[in-house]
Every structure is written in C-alpha cells, then in structure tokens.
From TrEMBL:
This is Class I SAM-dependent methyltransferase. Gene3D superfamilies: Vaccinia Virus protein VP39. InterPro entries: Methyltransf_11, Methyltransf_Superfamily, SAM-dependent_MTases_sf. The lineage of its organism: Bacteria, Bacillati, Cyanobacteriota, Cyanophyceae, Oculatellales. One of its GO terms (biological process) is methylation. Keywords: Methyltransferase, Transferase. Residues 148-251 form the Methyltransferase type domain. GO terms for molecular function: S-adenosylmethionine-dependent methyltransferase activity. It comes from Shackletoniella antarctica.
Length: 317
C-alpha cells in the first residue's frame, strides 16, 4: 500500500504544487473553490446516507450553547496558526458550523477510503477506527488504563478509543478528550450521552496541563495534517512528557506514500490544499524523524488503510 515516492507531486515545492498554490492565493478563485468543496462534500455524503443537514439542525439547541460557556477556558490563548480559515469556514474550527458539521464530515471521510465496496458509513467508520486500534494493540503497551485523545474534535475518536480499551480494563479505564475548539468540545460532550469520557478539556495539545507520566496512551487522530510542523514538534514533546515510561503516542493521518493520495485527481487535491492551510508542511514533514528527535525510544509506521498511516511511538521504560 505504499510507493517509493515519499510525497505527492502536488505537495511541497514541485511545479504542480506551486501552480496550485498560486490558484489558491487568488481570492475570487479561492472563494469559488470553497463553495464548490462544500457542495460536493454535502451532496456526496447525503447520497450515501450520512444525515448531514439534519445532524446540524438536531445539534443546534440552547443547551448546546450553555455547554460552550461551561467548557470554555477563558485563559486560553489560541496559537496564530489556528486562527485562520479552515475547511472552508472563515473562522476555522472556532465556530458552530464547523462543530455541527464535524461528525457528518468524519463519516463521509471514512466512506471515501473504500470506494469500491458497498459498505455503510457506519461500517466504514468502524473499520477506519479498528484499523488504527489494531496497530496500537500490536505495538502499544499491554496494559492501557489512562488515555488522552489530543485534537478530539467532536469525540468520535475519543469514544472509539475508550470503548476499545474500557471493556478489558473496566472500571479502571479513564479517557480524556482535549481540543482547542470549545465548539467541538460542546458537541463532543453532547454526543457522550452516557458520560463515558472522564473529562473534555479545552487546551492546546502543546500544553495540556496534565502532570508528568499521567497516561498510558496518547493519540493524535487526523490532527497532524492540520498543523504546521513546529506545532507537531511541540505536541510530540508534550505527549512524551505526559506519558508513563513504556507508554505510547499513536498517530493516524493521511499517508504521503499512499498511491491513492499521490494519484488524487487535480480537483480534489486543489480543494484539499485550499481548505487545509498546513497541508504542504504536513506532506513534506518526516514524522518518524521528529518522533526520534522528541525523545521517543522507538516507532513503527504501518499503512493502516489505503489512504492513511498509523504510527506508534514508545517512550522508554
Ligand atoms: C480533523 S479534527 C480531529 C478529528 C478527530 N480526532 C477524529 O479522529 O475524529 C482536528 C482537531 O484538532 C483540533 N486541533 C488543532 N490543533 C490543535 C491543537 N494545537 N491542540 C488541540 N487541538 C487542536 C481542531 O480543533 C480539530 O477539532
């Protein structure tokens, strides 16, 4: 599932990449691309049974707005890289629309992984999470009680992580979801109807506020491609600090070496680059080297599905 090419030609400094970047920097063209991206995403998702617009209607309640207030950490200072338009939302992740659409967008994303197979969005989502967790099981610590999901968004990754380990370790399993967007956290808390998650924390993954050695597993699920490399490096250092000896940082994200990603049609990679400002930096960044530089003792990388790779890095005993 990988090629010898380290990254797609449409990322980095190649000619194709520079032409695409120029188009994105043209305001009228960029506005058109953003509108198009939204329409294509919503139409495709609903055609495949993902209740996109209904989900947004259902989530928009007065109770949700109260959750926002209760979850917001007023002392938090947002990093500059986070306060930019993202995913075609002018306020990036810091708005209700981004939070209400996050779950349907996540379900639609999983469906794109296995286009040849007639599977439901629920089955695709379960398979995506399972493929990640299988790598973590194989290369992570044997005993997992305390887990931290960095960039948890609306909690889909947090709940799947928790439900994977909780039945084995119950009642000891304790899982925390952390995100920079209080809007995402409000939706996450509402989705966590049974209160399975110990805490939803509004903080930067670079400075979680947890004590040294608090967790057995830290995850970054589909977060790194949204970050400049300096942020990823800072998060790796923080993850190492809060992990116990022998603990693991598990990352799943787009695989630059995936033939599917490398062969994305121009309209798709242009849309992707126009709505994810740190794409180029992600696709040209050596995550394994960064993990070593941060002080992780070992790491493995597995192409866990046709589009994504899972990395599991261990802290020394
Ligand atoms: C694509 S979403 C993650 C999806 C989720 N983990 C999943 O697998 O379904 C990326 C999330 O990372 C959050 N994020 C980005 N930078 C962050 C940072 N420095 N610290 C904490 N959260 C961050 C965003 O607010 C967003 O909710």
């Amino acid at each position: 599932m990988t090629t010898t090419k380290l990254k797609p030609d449409w990322a980095g400094d190649d000619l194709l990449s520079r032409v695409v970047n120029r188009a994105i920097q043209t305001p009228a063209l960029y506005a058109l691309m953003k509108r198009q991206a939204r329409q294509v995403m919503i139409k495709t998702a609903e055609k495949n049974g993902v209740p996109w617009r209904q989900t947004c209607i259902d989530l928009d309640t007065p109770k949700m707005r109260q959750r926002l207030e209760a979850l917001t950490n007023p002392a938090l200072v947002y990093p500059d890289y986070y306060q930019v338009p993202f995913h075609a939302y002018s306020e990036g992740n810091l708005c209700w629309q981004a939070a209400f659409e996050a779950a349907p967008a996540t379900y639609a994303m999983a469906l794109r992984i296995w286009p040849q197979e007639a599977i439901s969005w629920q089955a695709a989502q379960a398979r995506l999470r399972q493929s990640f967790l299988a790598v973590l099981d194989a290369h992570g610590p044997a005993q997992v009680n305390d887990m931290l999901d960095l960039g948890c968004s609306v909690g889909i990754s947090t709940l799947s992580l928790h439900r994977h380990y909780a039945p084995r370790n119950s009642p000891a399993a304790r899982t925390v979801g952390l995100d920079l967007s209080p809007y995402m956290l409000a939706v996450a808390q509402a989705q966590d109807a049974q209160g399975e998650i110990a805490q939803w924390v509004h903080a930067a993954a670079e400075a979680t506020g947890f004590a040294d050695g608090s967790f057995d597993v830290v995850t970054m699920q589909f977060v790194a491609h949204e970050l400049p490399r300096t942020a990823t490096q800072a998060i790796f250092a923080e993850a190492l600090r809060v992990l116990r000896p022998g603990g693991a940082l598990a990352i799943v994200d787009n695989n630059p070496q995936s033939p599917v990603i490398q062969a994305l049609p121009p309209v798709l990679f242009t849309l992707m680059k126009s709505t994810e400002p740190w794409s180029d930096d992600y696709y040209t960044f050596d995550l394994e080297a960064a993990l070593r530089a941060a002080g992780f003792e070992s790491s493995v990388t597995v192409p866990s599905d046709p589009r994504h790779r899972t990395l599991v890095a261990r802290k020394g005993e």
